[in-house]
Amino acid sequence: MPSYQAPLRDLRFVMDEMFDYPSHYAALPNGDDASPDVVSAILEEGARFTRDVLLPLNQSGDEEGCRLEGGEVKAPQGFKEAYQQYVEGGWPSLAADVEHGGQGLPHSLAMVLSEMICATNLAWGMYPGLSHGAADALRHHGTDEQKATYLTKLVEGVWTGTMCLTEPHCGTDLGLIKTRAEPGEGDAFAITGTKIFISAGDHNLAENIVHLVLAKLPDAPEGSKGISLFVVPKFLPDAQGNPGERNGVSCGSLEHKMGIHGNATCVMNFDGAIGYLVGPPNKGLACMFTMMNAARLGVGIQGLGLMEASFQNSLSYARDRLQMRALSGPKAPEKVADPIIVHPDVRRMLLTQKAFAEGGRMLVLYAAQLLDVVEQGKLGEEKERAETLLGLLTPIVKAFLTEIGFECTNEGVQVFGGHGFIKEWGMEQLVRDARITRLYEGTTGIQALDLLGRKVLMSQGESLKVFTKEIHKFCKSEADNPALKEFVEPLSKLNAEWGELTMGVGMKAMQEREEVGAASVDYLMYSGYVTLAYLFARAARQASASLDSDDKAFYAAKLNTARFYYQRLLPRTKAHAQMMRAGAESLMAISSEDFGLGFEI
After folding, report:
1. What is the DSSP string of 268-295?
2. 477 FRET partner, CA 20 to 30 A, in 65, 326, 377, 535?
């Protein structure tokens, strides 16, 4: 079975030393509650819970999967008991508003816990994970009555939430949905339709499930402008607010999936189910985006957790596995062969995982700090800036971290060799679980279009300028620091090129709109690599200034990891830039009827 230890030392480096989280928390409302002692206790207890409770259920949950029995879904053995411990520990309410039964702590603390959960049992973590987004949607758009009925239960974790978007005939293009909402008695609606790919759509972990469902009213406009959002509980709350009569919603079947077997991915049937409008009529997509943006950050954290788990187990295996001798001579002459960690190619794979995990953690915690300001900060320029940056970075967090997360889990299998392909080691499960992260909550291609088309070009590059100006100021302030020359000079050049590439794509798109789609994924990946380069440069600044401390080995390793990233991973930007500059012509030249197969498709 794979092992895992929460990377607390690295978390504290990023939170306390790089981003000065103690001062950040102190500046937030109720910031005194997030004192260093409280934060430390949360990190330590989160590490214990995920290691001792969730990790032992990961492989068994994958092997057992979920069962649909008598119209009810049963999660794998141990999942319900683990969820009860999670609720009893107060984890669901960590970052929720006090007025709704939450603890009012910063959202960033909940995101740190999410990394640990995703690293130890991603399938289990999806049950409570979607509840946070459902609670956010109701908090922002629900009526007072809806908040009183559903929000406190979701915050406490005694009820869980889902979001029901996709239908058999449509995925991302939600304007095509067919689910209908017919007016009923009072403010109720009868919801009828079928939704697919609904994570945690039905299960036995909580006493009720609150579905947020996209549907169309009878007089709705065509397309996405005619979508409304409804809250549809599995059990209709009674007069006391407890689960009462069973609603007309059921799991028709369970999807048979490549990975995340321990999570119930359901086909959900709504047969005249009673639901209530959330937000204005025909404005459901805007309301749902509150939930989707939270989910997209959450999926990026899934990529981070999986790559950290892969790295830790790859490293442990590489230290013990004996094979061949080092080319420069035996490194363990007392043994029959050297540990494979001495071989350069194994070290390349290990360092790729290490650099991406540490860089991804910096990105997540940078975004988490922005989220704290957006959700809890005071109105003003700082909050506006945080909203702009978080909007820009959200598709990068989601797509870039899941792309490199899948790469890292594959490298983990490669480090193990043939043993990585065998189930008992748990490495192939990480690959299977990681694969979905590039798909759900918007594929990499969708995130790339959101970044380049909506966030950057539609703002005429203003959102990007907010970030590139920050990078420029950093480079300028460290230009005369000899310890950072190897980082600042290439970062400064890439930062300038980022703006040039953006302008180039924008100019081409004025003549041919397909240029945006042709460049978008390369643009997103380029953006991700440059963003991590900036964060590694900041980490290098902190590490180089701390080399004389008692923890010299940690800081030296951080500097060496930054160097590896700059020398062996950052050059990938050159290929992405070249592909962007190539334009759309070669992509669109071949007709859809003839891809060289000799027959029509």
Report:
1. EEEEEEEEEEESSTT-HHHHHHHHHHHH
2. 377
How many other C-beta atoms lie within 10 A of the C-beta of residue 534? 23
What three-state secondary structure class fits 74?
Answer: strand
Whole-angstrom Cα Rg for the chain: 25
Residues pairing with 265 in the sheet: 199
Read off the pLDDT of residues 325-343 as tens digits, 9 standing for 90 and up: 999 999 999 999 999 999 9
DSSP per-residue string spanning 347-400: HHHHHHHHHHHHHHHHHHHHHHHHHHHHHHSPSSHHHHHHHHHHHHHHHIIIII
**What are the distances in angstroms from CA 303 to CA 53, 222, 266, 448?**
21, 36, 22, 17
CB neighbours of residue 487 within 10 Å: 27
List beta partners, residue 213: 164, 230
Location of structure tokens 């490495």: 427
φ, ψ (nearest 5 deg) of residue 525:
-65, -40
**Coil, strand, or helix at residue 77?**
coil
Q: Quick one: which of 388, 387, 575, 380 has its CA closest to 468?
A: 388
User: Are the C-beta atoms of 20 and 371 separated by less than 8 Å?
Assistant: no
Distance, CA of 340 to CA of 348 (rounded, Å): 12
Distance from first CA to last CA of the chain, Å, rounded?
45
Spatial separation of the C-alpha atoms in residues 332 and 596, rounded to whole Å: 54
**Helix, strand, coil percent content, the chain, rounded in steps of 5:** 60, 10, 25
User: Is the pLDDT higher at 496 or at 29?
Assistant: 496
pTM over 0.90: yes
- Per the model's pLDDT, the better-predicted residue between 133 and 480 turns out to be 480
By DSSP bridging, strand 159-164 and strand 208-215 are parallel
Contact 196, 260 (CB under 8 A): no
CB 176 within 8 A of CB 169: yes
Inter-residue contact 539 to 336 (CB < 8 Å) = no
Strand, coil or helix: 460: coil
Whether residue 377 is predicted with pLDDT greater than 90 in this model: the reply is no
State residue 407 phi and psi, 5-degree precision: -60, -45
Rounded to whole angstroms, the Cα distance separating 236 from 188 reads 12
φ/ψ (deg, to 5) at 89: -80, -5
Burial class (CB in 10 A: 0-12, 13-18, 19+), 321: middle
Report the alpha-carbon distance of residue 203 to residue 209 in Å, rounded: 8
Query: What structural domains does the chain harbor?
Result: 8-141 (1.10.540.10), 156-284 (2.40.110.20), 289-305+362-586 (no CATH)
Instruction: Show the tokens assigned to 157.
Output: 């974790």
Compute the distance between CA of residue 166 and CA of residue 196 in angstroms, rounded to an integer: 6
> 60 with 76: CB under 8 angstroms?
yes
CB atoms within 10 A of CB 508: 19
Q: Where does 131-242 show beta strands of DSSP type E? A: 159-164, 180-183, 188-199, 208-215, 228-233, 235-237
Instruction: For residues 443 and 441, give the distance between their C-alpha atoms in angstroms, rounded to a whole number.
Output: 7
CA distance 411 to 400: 17
Catalytic: 441? yes
Q: Tell me how far CA of residue 394 lies from CA of 57, 293, 441, 455, 542, in angstroms.
A: 30, 7, 12, 10, 25
Catalytic residue among 115, 411, 441, 478: 441
